[in-house]
């Protein structure tokens, strides 16, 4: 075998890959490097230079001056409920679609998956008008309407993201043997009980994969929050960064530090749960 | 496949990619029609199963699918329809429905004839699409093929190349400003163009800035495509490749005749993602200058017309309808062909 195939020297491949990786990581390292240097030093030496001081003052400045904890809290208030509700609703639809053969299933899958693939901007005009019109009780929204409320933002995330999760979960649930449901049905288990106690626990790997993906996507959302959240102080951190730039973050060193801080949650999820993250994309893509 | 079920068969998607006639889904359907010759008791017929559902179960199942459906219809599909309807009206959005004036095709006429931002926006969206097909798609495939060779440090390479995908597009926008900043950026300083004499204004020059944005967009998209192809490659039956190399196929022949056909389902996904991501492009350019001065895109035109000082709902809707029609032309055939085969009764 090995004699047949001319063994191209792996060293060239490694050189190429190392080179590519250096280029790939360069923007992130440059941002990190810039964020560790005081503005005065970069002003004196130039941005692409060595020397001067290295400290974390940009990070503490960005954190305190712009009140980043507030925006992190906003992000948490939006992302976590949206994530849980999305997975919950999607798992229910997926159960109906994957464990039964109703005629309506094709339409359900079309509605959810195609909805998820639409560009957000294609539906924003009526949505925006809807959001500023529909009244909400004041404990749910400061503005008294759907717009500018955490509730409204959670709602649109759920409506939009459910599609992808239905798609992935229904594929996954089809692989669970029907015999399990048959046995449960013979034992008199209701549909809800089959969903809750048989199918859902078996979906744990898929749910974990989707949770990491959806966390990243909802946390990273910029568009919905920019348009549907008018008050700056209510915005989640990804969207808030845009307003804070120029107001608090006046130089590239501070912007870099703030960017690094904002990236931390997704980077943590990525490094700790990379396996699940990739598995989620794989589950979504392995259908075609 | 890290996410396989404990005891279950392979994922439906994986089985669908294999050209074997005896895939699980297919077998079940065959049993349905060949009950007379099958020795294995066939799974209960669909109708029979349906009839056995109690009234309460039916209500539960309806609610389980109905509640999410209601949300999706109200917040995605009705707005999609309303977008089309609103595009035939003139509506500033200030005041109620009484302010709506029927406009016929006037909004579209303005867009296609005298709206100066529209041609560059279409041009940039097409450019985005073209570049995404020309660079991240083949390069992502190439990287996936290299990383699939079971070389050392594969995990490390993979993590680094995939890293930009977890960063938000908004953050990529900030990084674009950082890396391509004329005087303070990495690119100009490394290439010696940061001085006043030969300054390259990557952000401000309307002929250049779209390229800076596209470079950073490709930076993120390549890792995405690479992971999808890697997942596809892992599912290609290794014995096929072995057989090919035993028959004396070289690397290119085995790629061309064995791997490429097996990757067909992933290719479809990559094409769809490439198209959708190009139509969705928004965050990076909006961070940089809200999509003006050489960075116009359909998505930014819609947004600025909607939330600008003069909210032009009808006009924004007409632009959104154009985006919607283009998207649906890609999305619906893909989704329909994907699902038709496994939900057929």
From TrEMBL, chain A:
Compartment(s) where it occurs, according to its Swiss-Prot or TrEMBL record: Cell membrane
Keyword Lyase: no
First and last residue of the signal peptide: none
Membrane-spanning ranges: 12-33, 76-97, 104-130, 150-169, 198-219, 254-273
GO CC terms in record: plasma membrane
Membrane-topology annotation of the record: Multi-pass membrane protein
Entry-linked InterPro entries: MetI-like (IPR000515), MetI-like_sf (IPR035906)
All residue ranges annotated as the ABC transmembrane type-1 domain in the record: 72-273
Keyword presence, Signal: no
UniProt keyword terms in alphabetical order: Cell membrane, Membrane, Transmembrane, Transmembrane helix, Transport
Biological process, per Gene Ontology: transmembrane transport
Pfam families to which the protein is assigned, alphabetical: BPD_transp_1
PROSITE patterns reported for this sequence: ABC_TM1
Family matches, as SUPFAM superfamilies: MetI-like (SSF161098)
Entry superkingdom: Bacteria
Protein family per UniProt: Belongs to the binding-protein-dependent transport system permease family.
Protein's name in the database: Carbohydrate ABC transporter permease
């Amino acid at each position: 075998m090995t004699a047949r195939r001319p063994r191209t020297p792996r060293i060239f491949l490694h050189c190429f890959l190392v080179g590519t990786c250096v280029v790939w990581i360069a923007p992130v390292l440059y941002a990190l490097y810039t964020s560790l240097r005081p503005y005065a030093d970069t002003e004196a030496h130039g941005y692409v230079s060595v020397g001067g001081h290295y400290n974390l003052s940009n990070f503490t400045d960005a954190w305190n001056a712009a009140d980043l904890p507030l925006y992190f809290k906003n992000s948490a208030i939006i992302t976590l409920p949206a994530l849980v509700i999305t997975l919950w609703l999607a798992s229910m639809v997926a159960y109906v679609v994957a464990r039964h053969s109703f005629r309506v299933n094709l339409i359900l899958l079309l509605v959810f998956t195609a909805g998820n693939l639409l560009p957000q901007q294609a539906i924003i005009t009526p949505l925006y008008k809807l959001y500023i019109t529909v009244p909400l009780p004041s404990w749910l929204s400061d503005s008294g309407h759907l717009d500018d409320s955490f509730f409204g933002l959670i709602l649109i995330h759920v409506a939009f993201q459910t599609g992808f999760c239905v798609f992935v979960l229904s594929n996954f649930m089809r692989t669970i043997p029907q015999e399990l449901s048959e046995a449960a049905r013979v034992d008199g288990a209701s549909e809800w009980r089959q969903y809750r106690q048989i199918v859902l626990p078996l979906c744990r790997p898929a749910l974990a994969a989707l949770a990491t993906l959806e966390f990243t996507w909802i946390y990273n959302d910029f568009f919905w929050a920019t348009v549907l959240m008018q008050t700056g102080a209510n915005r989640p951190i990804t969207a808030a960064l845009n307003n804070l730039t120029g107001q608090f973050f006046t130089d590239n060193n501070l912007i870099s530090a703030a960017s690094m801080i904002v990236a931390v949650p997704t980077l943590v999820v990525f490094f700790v749960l990379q396996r699940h993250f990739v598995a989620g994309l794989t589950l979504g893509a392995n259908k075609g | 496949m890290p996410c396989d079920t404990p005891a279950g068969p392979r994922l439906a998607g994986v089985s669908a990619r294999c050209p074997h006639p005896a895939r699980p889904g297919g077998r079940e359907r065959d049993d349905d029609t060949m009950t007379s010759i099958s020795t294995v008791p066939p799974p209960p017929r669909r109708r029979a199963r349906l009839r056995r559902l109690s009234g309460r179960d039916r209500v539960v199942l309806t609610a389980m699918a109905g509640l999410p459906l209601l949300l999706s219809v109200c917040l995605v599909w009705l707005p999609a329809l309303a977008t089309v309807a609103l595009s035939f009206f003139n509506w500033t959005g200030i005041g109620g429905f009484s302010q709506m004036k029927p406009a016929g095709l006037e909004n579209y006429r303005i867009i296609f004839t005298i709206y100066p931002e529209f041609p560059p926006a279409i041009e940039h969206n097409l450019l985005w699409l073209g570049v995404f097909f020309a660079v991240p798609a083949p390069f992502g495939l190439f990287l996936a093929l290299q990383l699939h060779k079971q070389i050392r440090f594969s995990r490390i390479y993979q993590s680094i190349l995939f890293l930009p995908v977890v960063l938000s597009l908004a953050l990529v926008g900030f990084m674009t400003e950082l890396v391509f900043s004329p005087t303070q950026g990495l690119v100009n300083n490394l290439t010696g163009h940061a001085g006043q004499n030969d300054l390259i204004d990557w952000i401000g020059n309307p002929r250049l800035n779209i390229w800076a944005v596209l470079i950073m967009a490709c930076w993120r998209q390549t890792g995405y495509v690479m992971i999808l192809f890697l997942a596809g490659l892992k599912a290609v039956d290794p014995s096929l490749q072995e057989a090919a190399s035993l028959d004396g196929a070289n690397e290119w022949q085995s790629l061309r005749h064995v791997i490429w056909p097996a990757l067909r389902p992933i290719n479809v996904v990559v094409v769809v993602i490439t198209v959708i991501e190009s139509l969705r492009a928004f965050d990076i350019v909006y961070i940089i200058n809200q999509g003006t001065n050489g960075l116009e895109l359909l998505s930014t035109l819609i947004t600025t017309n909607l939330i600008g000082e003069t909210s032009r709902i009808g006009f924004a809707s007409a632009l959104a309808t154009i985006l919607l029609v283009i998207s649906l032309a890609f999305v619906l055939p893909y989704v329909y062909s994907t699902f038709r085969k496994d939900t057929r009764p």
